[in-house]
Protein 1
Amino acid sequence: GNLKNAIEAYEKSRAAIPRELLGYFMSVNRLLVGAYSQAGDFAAAEVATRDSEAAMVLLRKSPSFFGPFGKGWESNLESSRAINFLFQGRWVEAERAGWQSIKKINEAMAEYDQKQAQSPDEPELAQRNKRNFVTYKSARLQDLAFAIMMQGRFVDAEIVCRESIDLTLKWFDRASVDVAMGLTRLASIVAEQGRPAEAVALANEAIKTYQAGGASTDSLGMIRGRRILGTALVSNHQYKQADEVFSDMKQGIDQHTKEGGREIPINDLDWVMAMHKIGKDKQALQMTDDMIVQATKQTGVSEGRMQLLNAFRALGLHGEGKEDEARQAYGRVMPN
């Protein structure tokens, strides 16, 4: 979760790759694009993507291009584009590049299987290569599912996400991080379809899978998993359990930040809702006020978002018995 250190490490690794091993550049550069994109430095992510495109021009002249390596390099290029688009919220472009990345990796896997039938690698090497293919493809499928979900095509997103989970279950232990990530993504997609009970079950299973795989409470996977579980519990009217899950999430975020990880937002309107439902109005009001302060410092926050935050603030003031202030807050949201 420490993006600054990750970017520095990827930059150093990329700089150390000799020209004759330019294929490795494509994989490292994809990770660098992802780190820059997560950090919100889209200009740097775009430059790194252009570096991949330039490297691809040279790699297409390599004899190794005509085989599994070439398709894999092309897949990495399309994946870099998809990741960059994804974090910018350019969902249609992210989907298009995502499908291209998966198409190329499928072709690479097919060519590798043909090669193995004619001249097989050592069993351990072949197994390792295939597992690498699966890890890469499952991650691309999950990114693709997210891009599709954000376009409102929830059934299509669920189909793609389930394909990712099926793939990882065939190759990895049920307690693997790959499986847990797929379950977390599926839980969020199912929740968007108004199926909260299923979302709760899936998110709970994801948490158990992370724990069985040895993930720590401050890992990004566990933090994301608990946030999605908390949201699903609120949708399923299980407010006390939601508050407990969000509290566990906060402990993980605090530990993550303490150990040098990037800051992760703690405040969440679903948590505010849960606290109101169980009588923790003071804490809910404090969190709402913090969110309003943060929103006023940001650019591009919609009027609808601000009205929603102020409506929750009015609710919190009412819960604290501050009726005059609550009426004033409601008046700002719904003027006469």
Note: The radius of gyration is 23 Å.
Protein 2
Amino acid sequence: SDLLTRQLDAARARGDARAVSSLTLRIVDLAGFGGLAGVTPRPDAREGIIDLLRGSLDVAPDDRALLTRLLGMLGLGDDPLDRADVMERLLAVETAEAAPALGEALAALRQELGDEDGVTRALALAHGRAPDHAPTRDRLSAWYAAREAWPELTELLGGVAGRETDPQAAVARYREIASLYSTRLGDPGRAADALRAARKLSPEDGALLSELVQVLDASGDRGAAEEELSRALDGTEGVRRAELLRLRAWLSLRHADDVQAIADLEEALALGDPAASAELSAALFERLRRTVEQGDADGERAVILRLVALVGPSDPAQVEEAPYGFLDQVVWA
């Protein structure tokens, strides 16, 4: 034992962390605190062994074996704050298998001590050591949400999304991130980034594109929204093209571009999308209002005639030669 102690002192002096760990554990074992069969620990040696471990940790502060032994030496009668600090140091280097349980125990102890920041650190450390452990991840997520720690929650979910092996699960995470950026953090630009990441995984998801266009428009970047739509429309035909045209028409109407909206909706209607009819009628009525304001009589009549053709009676004789009268009955009544 004296020889081991001298060797330990020499290892500490030269900063040899590996030798310090090995020699310290050997001394602890021989003192009966390592669980060796046939070796009974002396109660009066406990404090000395704790001091020995603390001294060795000054040289090897991240040594998992030393931290594990020290934590095992500390009992319920010891300072709970000291135990919590040792647990936190151990958690930072713990294995993925053991980290969740240790993190939960540390979080509970920190909560007993009234240390909410300590709870956050415990859960975050446990997640960092075992990122694929769903209960730990969910506990941390709920903890952040309850405290409205939105930046931390979006960062957590971003890491989760990046590790997802199921594309649809990842898309759901990115959507959640986008929602947080839009509704909680007021950052539509970052929301758009999240939705773009989702679209890479699910490029045919029309709802995703719609969400992205709306977010980009909300951020004041209409040009980017139109670029997304143009790329999606390129080479697209049939029903899918009609849906995209209707979405672009919505964007155009948002910016008082009823001429472009009407052109897109006319094409969508020609492609057989029944939903385009009502939307085209609304766009035409908006165009009609604008032509009246501008005093554009020719434009006004052209819009009215198109409206009559679109929503008028099946018998043209009912309209006679006064489409305005028809609109008076149908629209302004």
Note: Residues 275-294 form the longest helix (20 residues).
